[in-house]
């Protein structure tokens, strides 16, 4: 796991030393790789590659980057892990290749020599973002892994292509311009993140997952896809029994986890006590020759605390378990640090416990396995079942009546929704009002895809709140998925958007802030292809969320440790904003600083209503605060 950065002057030879500039850009992301650094440049070609190293595999100098292929044709700066590099190495050795060290980087370069870069990447099993320069053909490729685990940003400014793991690498170039994209700010208020391929800056892009950007000297960049989750889902469903499906998933998970234990440094695992992290910890304990180390967060609010569940799972599995305490007062100093972890506005509040557990984990190990991806792959989010049931019942009404009913729910007074909240879930009233409004908006949508998008609006959708924005981003339904199954369509929407742009962004930035490598075995593309090849009825069984994954976990844990209500990995933001974090929030919500991007009176009204308890504006306010905190740090 590392950080990459670089540039390519497209008009000819570089006017300044490209290696020095690449090193300067990479230095801006030094937190991603504290174990070493390197830079390479070819002034005549105008290319410069920079690298920051977090040493995981091959800790010797033979693993240093940027690295060149044996023939000298290819130069690479690479972030990530290719977990099947040993098998690829054996295949390449049989074809006559010889290797100096034991790194996966050297194997990747040989694979590009043997099969060509575009074909080689389809053979890689792993998470990666890399820049590969073909010195013979004067061609640069930027490549991102299939699910978007590792980030990669790019732009062209004044005839120079800039790229980097984080935006701050691009910002380090003297020609970079911080032109704010107000549509991105508007998207953060609605979604809590900036959806790809956009970034917070105009004309600066995220490379989409499973993509290769190819740029040849004198040409224009083209982006092609080398893998598609939609194609995997559209493929013919295979016929197998429930028992056969469980066996196959178990075997695929064992292989995925075994591969992710390849490391020359210590490893651990995040454990919340939920299904996803529990199955990862259980199989890690099964396949590892050493006692697994697990880590969890203990929140001082029982509505959000999962530490008891995690502890019970750890005790049963026999892992070496560590708990990290989290309270409003214990992390108040970290709230101000969030813009240091995220160099564009990001507002998923679980960023705080994620960073806290990552920091504690890093004190013991350098690599941590996580259970991310289980909800999207195995239909674990409660919203899937809620919308499927609500849509089925509402569809019995004429469309105008359904839309009208949805609008009534979405526009109901707060006290009505709060009363319903106490009936729906008295233990966790916070944000239920928001969820009820979102469900009403979903039922008023034209079709089920747009209903799913309505449920994805976790913050506030208020035209005019962001000055000059028209709400252009994050409103496009998926295209090309052939199934009409409501839950499957919602899963795919999340797999392509929410997972890479929110969940994986959060995990990458919070772990990289402390130089910890996170690995996600549930996002092995071979597992994803198999699960999507199953008919929806088999994938969801009796309708229990994560039906098949729970069946796998039942082989390793008793039922009382599996059949628990789902809890999101979050914190009581609304309560803390009105309490111990109020002074911090007030400092960011003064009318003068708000007026730069927002309708300041409208935001102040939202804040006052939240403090008065007449409206739960927790998520909307947190999203605004994260924009404000980011602007104070980066503008």
Tell me about this structure:
The chain is an alpha+beta fold and 635 residues long. Among the domains are: 2-227, Glutamine Phosphoribosylpyrophosphate, subunit 1, domain 1, CATH 3.60.20; 236-378 and 489-561, Rossmann fold (3-Layer(aba) Sandwich). The strands form 3 sheets. It has a 6-stranded antiparallel β-sheet with strand order 2-3-1-9-8-10. Strand 11 and strand 12 (222-225) form a beta hairpin. The radius of gyration is 24 Å and the shape is globular. The protein starts with a strand and ends with a helix.
Regions with pLDDT < 50 over 5+ consecutive residues? 423-430
Shape-level CATH architecture of the domain at 2-227: 4-Layer Sandwich
CATH topology description of the domain at 2-227: Glutamine Phosphoribosylpyrophosphate, subunit 1, domain 1
Main sheet: strand order: 2-3-1-9-8-10
The proportion of residues forming helix, as a percent range, comes to: 40-55%
The class by helix and strand makeup works out as alpha+beta
CATH class of the domain at 2-227: Alpha Beta
């Amino acid at each position: 796991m590392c950080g990459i950065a670089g540039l390519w002057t497209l008009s000819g030879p570089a006017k300044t030393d490209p290696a020095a500039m690449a090193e300067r850009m990479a230095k801006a992301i030094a937190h991603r790789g504290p174990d070493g650094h390197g830079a390479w440049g070819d002034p005549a070609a105008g290319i410069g590659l920079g690298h920051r190293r977090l040493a995981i595999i091959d800790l010797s100098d033979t693993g240093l980057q940027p690295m060149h292929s044996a023939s000298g044709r290819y130069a690479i700066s690479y972030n990530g892990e290719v977990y099947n590099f040993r098998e690829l190495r054996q295949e390449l050795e049989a074809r006559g290749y010889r290797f100096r060290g034991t790194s996966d980087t050297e194997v990747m370069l040989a694979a590009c020599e043997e099969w060509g870069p575009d074909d080689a990447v389809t053979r890689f099993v792993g998470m990666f973002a890399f820049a590969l320069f073909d010195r013979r053909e004067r061609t640069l490729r930027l490549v991102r892994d299939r699910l978007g685990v590792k980030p990669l940003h790019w732009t062209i400014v004044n005839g120079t292509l800039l790229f980097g793991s984080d935006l701050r690498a691009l910002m380090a170039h003297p020609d970079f311009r911080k032109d704010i994209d107000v549509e991105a700010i508007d998207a953060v208020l609605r979604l809590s993140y900036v959806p790809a391929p956009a970034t917070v800056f105009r004309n600066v892009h995220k490379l989409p997952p499973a993509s290769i950007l190819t740029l040849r000297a004198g040409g224009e960049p083209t982006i092609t896809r080398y893998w598609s989750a939609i194609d995997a889902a559209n493929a013919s469903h295979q016929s197998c029994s429930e028992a056969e499906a469980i066996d196959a998933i178990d075997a695929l998970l064992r292989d995925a986890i075994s591969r992710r234990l390849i490391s020359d440094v210590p490893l651990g695992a995040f454990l919340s006590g939920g299904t996803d992290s529990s199955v990862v910890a259980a199989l890690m304990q099964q396949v590892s020759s050493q006692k697994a180390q697990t880590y969890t967060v203990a929140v001082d609010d029982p509505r959000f605390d999962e530490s008891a569940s995690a502890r019970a799972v750890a005790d049963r599995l026999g892992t070496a378990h560590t708990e990290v305490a989290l309270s409003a007062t214990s992390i108040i100093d970290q709230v101000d640090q969030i813009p240091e972890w995220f160099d564009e506005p990001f507002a998923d509040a679980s960023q705080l416990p994620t960073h806290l557990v990552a920091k504690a984990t890093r004190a013991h190990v350098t690599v941590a396995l996580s259970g991310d991806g289980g909800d999207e792959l195995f239909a674990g989010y409660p919203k899937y079942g809620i919308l499927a049931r609500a849509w089925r019942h509402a569809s019995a009404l004429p469309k105008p009546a359904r839309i009208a009913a949805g609008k009534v729910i979405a526009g109901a007074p707060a006290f009505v929704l709060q009363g319903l909240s106490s009936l729906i879930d008295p233990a966790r009233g916070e944000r239920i009002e928001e969820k009820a409004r979102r469900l009403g908006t979903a039922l008023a949508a034209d079709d089920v895809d747009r209903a799913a998008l309505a449920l994805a609006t976790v913050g506030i959708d208020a035209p005019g709140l962001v000055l000059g924005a028209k709400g252009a981003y994050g409103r496009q339904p998926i295209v090309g998925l052939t199934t009409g199954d409501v839950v499957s369509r919602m899963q795919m929407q999340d797999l392509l958007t929410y997972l890479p742009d929110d969940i994986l962004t959060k995990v990458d930035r919070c772990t990289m802030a402390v130089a910890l490598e996170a690995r996600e075995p549930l996002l092995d593309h071979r597992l994803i292809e198999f699960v999507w090849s199953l008919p929806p009825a088999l994938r969801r069984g009796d309708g229990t969320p994560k039906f098949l994954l729970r069946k796998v976990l039942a082989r390793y844990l008793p039922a009382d440790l599996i059949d628990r209500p789902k809890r999101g990995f979050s914190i009581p933001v609304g309560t803390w904003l009105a309490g111990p974090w109020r002074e911090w929030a007030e400092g960011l919500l003064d009318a003068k600083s708000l007026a730069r991007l927002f309708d300041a009176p409208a935001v102040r009204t939202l804040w006052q209503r939240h403090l008065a308890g007449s409206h739960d504006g927790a998520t909307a306010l947190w999203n605004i605060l994260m924009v404000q905190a980011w602007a104070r740090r980066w503008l």
